[in-house]
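Contributing new records

If you add data, match the layout below exactly. Sequence lines come first and carry their own label; structure lines follow with theirs. Keep one chain per record. Anything else will be rejected by the validation script.
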Amino acid sequence: MLLQVQESSAASAGRQLELDPDRWRRWVVYQVYPRSFADANGDGVGDLRGVLGRLDYLHRLGVDVLWLSPVYRSPMDDNGYDISDYQDIDPLFGTLADLDELIAELHSRGMRLVMDLVVNHTSDEHPWFVESRSSRDNPKRDWYWWRDPRPGAMPGTPGAEPTNWESHFSGPTWTWDERTGQYYLHIFSRRQPDLNWENPEVRQAVYAMMRWWLDRGVDGFRMDVINMISKDTSLPDTQPRPGSPYGPGDQHFTGGPRNHEYLQEMYREVFAGRPDHVLTVGEMPDVTIAQAVLFTAQERHELDMVFQFEHVRLDQGAHRYDLRPLKLPDLKASMAAWQAGLAGQGWNSLYFGNHDQPRSLSRFGDDGEHRAASAKTLATVLHLHQGTPYVYQGDELGMANAPFTAITDFRDIQALRFHADAADRGDTDLAALLTAMGRMSRDQGRTPVQWDASPGAGFTVGTPWIAVNPDHVDINAAAQVGAADSVFEHYRQLIALRHTDPVVTDGEFELLLAEHPAIWAFLRRGRDAELLVAANLSADVVSVVLPLEARWADAAVVLTSHPDRSPQQPPDLALGPWESVIWRRTR
């Protein structure tokens, strides 16, 4: 018989944990990419009123925190990650009054709001950059990175840039400004100039903006590429790619010499002394375990956790669309290394997908015959690791990649520029590239949330900004909420388990059968109880003997992906295709 998992709401969980200073470690975060979540006004783009209309759904799921991707004023060169006003809402998404209402409605349900903080760069339409660009002697000139051309080179021509760094959105990281006769730095789009954090005025302006949002009721920040704010000020060159004047310069602008100093200053200026815990997570490409320990150690007062990228790069070669086979032992080893490395010292964030990744079900699971089972099993192994789980919108429904096959299907600036550059070079099989883009493009994580089987999937009554996945007719919230064996209800039980069983949050982690090609099994050891997780990440029936004491044979089943059948008891198991089980026993 299954143990009954107490389905406490986020509000009741919050009340129970209010006296615990580490209660944030039990929270589950749900990411909303507002452009694709819910459209209330029928213009085909999601908005804040749409989010407000779905809060009861999120409350029923049981999540504690809503992370909202950028809704600030923006020219939308990079879908809002190019901000022109940090203290206003873009009319595409609504108004400040809508945001205030969202905060109030979340708080009334015992939930919290985390805003996306994008302060490595601004939009080129931000007043700060408009001033900085106006003249060399403008007081805000040094708020951004301005440099002369390479000595002896013709300004504005390839190779004349101050460094030979390659942008994350293709091309060089420097753009020539004819008016003032200098280049400005942008790690991403040319319309996303990098702020100069070496200038204390920049930092104080950012901190003031952050305090303004916290005073307004926001409960935390997800900090976009926050390990890029400190750069090697000597601006050294990098090794160019074969046949190109440019190459990856990330080692010179990622994890720079003052990164820890800036984050500690941010804590003192913005977070220290506030009565409630401010949740902070830093997106950090290329961060190592040793660095993450420093960034997340509580006594250092920097961040609660970081987003690391190691496990989501295992199936990539030189770039996002250079696909490599993913081997389960490699994925398990990566996750286990972060569990061991941060245990008792820092804190992990747990994710398989977000707005910058394709759908985790299509990438790591089986989006065909075993779709529901694999969605449940991926969620089980993720949520039972130690750390804070992040649910990306639609994952709780088992949403999958859409059938994107033509370049006109895509909207993402990164994908479109990569394809255009490849076409210009003439050295790439464009059909193969499109196939890879269909598997790995950021657009795959940005298709509209599938609320029901209607033509617009319940997302909009208008024409959606990006195509709805045709499978929404069968895969949608209306068909799953309240359905006992659905992916949604499985997520709901996983979240409730985290709220009620301290072993999920506090227990030690031990990986079992590290080299097994199909079985992902591990223990979580608490002071008074233990949990065992065993999952089959394959389409075959797999028999296995776990290296466990015989007394596990009396353990109680807590949760299974296949509630219609009774699993075998450990240590001898025969797991069906994409079957996963959690057992519990007292110590």
